[in-house]
Every structure is written in C-alpha cells, then in structure tokens.
Automatic annotation (TrEMBL):
Family: Belongs to the threonine synthase family.
Post-translational modification N6-(pyridoxal phosphate)lysine, affected residues: K115
UniProt keyword list: Amino-acid biosynthesis, Lyase, Pyridoxal phosphate, Threonine biosynthesis
Protein name: Threonine synthase
GO-annotated biological processes: isoleucine biosynthetic process; L-serine catabolic process; L-threonine catabolic process; threonine biosynthetic process
Reaction(s) catalysed by this chain's protein: O-phospho-L-homoserine + H2O = L-threonine + phosphate
General function of this protein: Catalyzes the gamma-elimination of phosphate from L-phosphohomoserine and the beta-addition of water to produce L-threonine.
Cofactor list: pyridoxal 5'-phosphate
InterPro entries: Ser/Thr_Dehydratase, Thr_synthase-like, Thr_Synthase_bac/arc, TrpB-like_PALP, TrpB-like_PALP_sf
Binding site for pyridoxal 5'-phosphate: N141, T378
Residue span(s) of domain Tryptophan synthase beta chain-like PALP: 81-379
A Pfam family this chain is assigned to: PALP
C-alpha cells in the first residue's frame, strides 16, 4: 500500500506500519487504542484528480482506489459497491423549509446497505493477506454485507448476530452460505464472543470498530457526495450513529479531501441516535466518556449499547462544529413515511434515523433554511418489513366488487378525476 504512510493511535499518537492481523495500538489496548490510517497525499494526487474522475467510467467506490488502504493493483471483489444516487429532495425540502436538500440512498448497494463499502475493503485486504475465513459480529447489515462480499470471491464467512436480528437480514446471511451464529443475548454479547473466536482461530477480523481499514471504506459514501455536488461542500451532513464508525468514515472523507487540496472548507456533522440507545449522544452532551446503555429501540442497526468506536465519532462531530441529537422510535417511523411519500426512498428504521434527526434539527433551529444539507439513508426498508408495516399501516382490504372499492375509496376522499381529466401542463411543457 504505497499510498498509506502509517497507522496512528488516536489515544497516544504512536505510529505503526501496517501488517497482517495488526488492528489496534498494543500500548493502549483494544478499547482505547483505535488506529487511524494516514496517507501520502502527494502520491494520491499523482494518480487521481478531480479532472481524471470526470472521465472515469468506473461506477463503484473503487474509482477512489488511491484514497483507500488496499493494494493499488490486483484483484478486488467483483460486486458493484457504491456510486449510489444523490437525489435532490425538493419535495421533502419544501415540507421542511429547506432551500437545498439532498438524499444519499445507500440502500441500493448489493446487500442493501452502506455496510457493503467497508466489507468490500475487508474482503480486498483479506484476499491480499491470504486469509481463508472472514468473521464479524453485527446487528445485521455488516453481517450480510460481509457474507455477500465473501461469497463473491469464495471466502468463508463466520457471522455472529444477536438473537433479535431481523429475519430479512439473517436470511441474506444464510443464502450467501455464511456460518451464522445467533447469540442469544445483546450485541455486546455477540461482539465479545466473535472477538474471542477470531483470536482463537486467526480469522480475518471485519469488526469495523477494531479494524482501522473499514472506516476508510465507509468514507467513500462522502467522497461520492463531494463529487456528485461538483466539489461544492454542503453545510451539513446528517447520518445515524450506532457504533460510531460510519460517522468517523463520513468525516474522514472530507478531511482527506481537504488535506489533498481538493476542497477548501469542511461541513458540519449531525449525528443522530435513537433515544432508547444513545450512549454517544449522552457522552457528547455531558463531555464524558461513553457509558453502556440498554439497547431499547426498533432501529436494530444502530442499537449498540457499548459502542466500540465512539471516540472517532465524537471527535468528528466536535471538530466539525456539529452536534448530536436523539429521536424516538415514533419519530423514526414517521420519518420512514415522509421519506417514502416525498422522495420515493424506502429506508429501514436505522437507515432513516438520520432523516428523523434532520426533521427535528430543522424544527429546533439547529439547521437553517438557507443551508445546503445532505442526509445519508444507510439501509433499505426491505431489510425490516415488520417495522415498515408498523410505520405505514396495513393495506385496505375490500371484497372483490366495484361497490366495495367505491366505498373504500370514498372513505379515503381521494380526488376523482374521471376519464376526461387532463393534467395541468408541467412548467417545461408550458415553455
């Protein structure tokens, strides 16, 4: 990895050279000794530029390969991960009173979540290191993304999930041929068991809070945002927070771009947690270390009572002059409805927690009407259909007759245009 200069401990600032199986600072330990990947930006600028990207036809996250901690030549996982759409959300923006709002929909990735990005990096590195088995603990999305990426290159995946993991996510794991261990306990229980098994068997460790390279995969979402906005930096980037790794990755993208000289300013970061599991928000507000919390929210993918990478997330929010906010499960379900109704984007509860936080932040005056905002939707709603039905309600049930249909539609008070209705011309057609 000629583009990577070293790994730096975020706690003691000691530096290390990358080597297989080396994930955390041995002096500070696995809890505090989280490492950060540092790059040679002169090297990066030699092999990639804004101008070269304009002509790059690679429709995936690998278009940013010089910014990533993988071999700069050689095989990569074949699944197309990344280059997800950035929609201008004018209808939702109008409802919220925002002049310029964008939605980054990462639910279109191969296994339907942003977690495909770090898993692609994990599998690329596992192949380069000659690993035969990759493993992780997960509330669901990281697990399915790793299983899919591993299956695409013939690696064996061993996945540890808490017993509450939604069946849609477990089904993905099994279809991809992973060995699935359903731990009858909390996410923390699953994490501890996976860590012990990984150490005992020498499997490649995909746990994002431990493996410093996986945050780098997550940052590609915001590298894409920057390019899709023609390198005009938004005022705010909004996203849900569980373990803290996605926030850390999103912020790292903007920091890397600024250090490389590609942008001149940095956005503010808004991190959103569920009220029923918000240890990072609590630490941010109190200025203390993170303390464990119960995992009491329907947003399973961010229900992390003992986050393993909170410090990078906290630093990202503080360094950006951003803030943290909590939302209730009811606010999350409401956000699922409004996002679908106004934008046609179907997100799972954890995936739209950022949208719920955005709505609340606008209402509280944290985000101003004239500011440019990007909100990340990190997972597709089909992963958790039970909660989608809880959010949207049941379908209308009618007998198979027009009379019954007329009554049902009449009760809804839908507009009845009739056969002679001609819609008003669109603005472009008037011109």
């Amino acid at each position: 990895m000629s583009n990577v200069t070293q790994l730096r401990c975020i706690n003691c600032s000691r530096t290390y050279q990358p080597r297989p199986g080396f994930y955390t600072c041995p002096v500070c330990g696995s809890t505090d000794g989280i490492l950060d990947v540092e790059y040679d930006y002169d090297y990066i600028n030699k092999y990639i530029s804004k101008e070269s990207l304009a002509g790059n036809r690679e429709p995936s996250m690998w278009r940013y390969r010089p910014f990533l901690p993988v071999a700069q030549e050689g095989p990569l996982p074949p699944l197309r991960v990344g280059w997800s759409p950035l929609y201008r959300a004018d209808r939702l923006g109008a409802e919220l009173g925002l002049k310029e709002l964008y939605i980054k929909d990462d639910g279109i990735n191969p296994t339907a979540s942003l977690k495909d990005r770090p898993s692609a990096v994990a599998v690329a590195r596992a192949m380069a290191e000659g690993a035969g088995v990759v493993a992780c603990s997960s509330t669901g999305n990281a697990a399915s993304s790793l299983a899919g990426a591993a299956a695409s290159v013939g690696l064996k995946a061993v996945i540890f999930v808490p017993g509450r993991a939604p069946q849609g996510k477990v089904a993905q794991l099994l279809i991809f041929g992973a060995t699935v261990i359903s731990v009858q306990g909390s996410y923390e229980d699953a994490f501890r068991l996976s860590a012990a098994a990984i150490e005992e068997h020498g499997w490649y460790n995909r746990n994002a809070a431990i493996n410093p390279y996986l945050v780098e995969g997550k940052k590609t979402a915001c590298l894409e945002v920057a390019e899709q906005l023609h390198w005009e930096v938004p005022d705010w980037v909004v996203l849900s927070v569980g373990d803290g790794c996605t926030m850390a990755g999103a912020w790292k993208a903007w920091v890397d771009l600024k250090k490389a000289g590609w942008i001149e300013k940095l956005p503010r970061m808004l991190g959103v947690q569920a009220e029923g599991c918000c240890p990072i928000t609590r630490a941010f507000r109190e200025g203390t270390r993170v303390r464990p919390m119960e995992e009491n929210t329907l947003a399973d993918s961010i229900a992390v009572g003992v986050p393993r990478n909170p410090e990078k997330a906290l630093r990202a929010v503080r360094d950006s002059r951003g803030t943290m906010i909590n939302v209730s499960d009811e606010e999350i379900l409401a956000a699922m409805r409004v996002l679908g109704r106004t934008s046609g984007v179907f997100g799972e509860p954890a995936g739209v927690a950022g949208t719920a936080g955005l709505i609340k932040a606008v209402r509280e005056g944290i985000i101003k009407p004239e500011e440019r905002v990007v909100v990340l939707v990190t997972g597709n709603g089909l992963k958790d259909v039970a909660n989608a039905i809880k959010a949207a309600g049941e379908p209308i049930r009618v007998a198979p007759s027009l009379e019954a249909l007329h009554k049902a539609l009449g009760d809804l008070k839908l507009p009845n245009y009739g056969w002679g209705y001609v819609p008003e011309p669109r603005l472009a057609e008037r011109r």
